[in-house]
Amino acid sequence: QVQLVESGGGLVQAGGSLRLSCAASGLTFSIYNIGWFRQAPGKEREFVAAVGRSNLHTYYADSVKGRFSISRDNAKNTVYLQMISLKPEDTAVYYCAARLTGWYTDASGYLYWGQGTQVTVSS
To answer: Which residues contact 28 (CB under 8 A, 6 or more apart)?
Structure first.
């Protein structure tokens, strides 16, 4: 049974930092590309960042470039999303997801999803 479990969310003031983790099990982690998406209340789910099978290839939404950093540790079956300079508009539930193929921003191409972790940034 494949599981993706996010952790690390919480309440932080604007300008603060958080590091999200996505721990995977039940799959050959190293062959999957991993993405982070987020969904704010009343809004559609949006792409945040993605990493290829190694840390050589990373991709970011324009809204988080320079503030968020995605990385993976294949030995630990874990992907991280380091977030700095957080803004109130970053408030959302953050999800990690795994895909084998497809364009990294396309949520429909991801096969497995975690349950999400809440990030709240206060002004």
So the answer is: none
122 contact partners, CB below 8 Å, separation of at least 6: 11, 12, 13, 14, 88
Closest by Cα among 122, 114, 105, 97 to 6: 114
pLDDT digits (tens, 9 = 90+) for 41-90: 999 999 999 999 989 999 999 999 999 999 999 999 999 999 999 999 99
Q: Indicate the Cα dihedral angle 42, 43, 45, 51, nearest 10°.
A: -120
Residues with Cβ within 8 Å of 66's Cβ and at least 6 positions away in sequence, in order, are none
**Amino acid sitting at position 38:** R
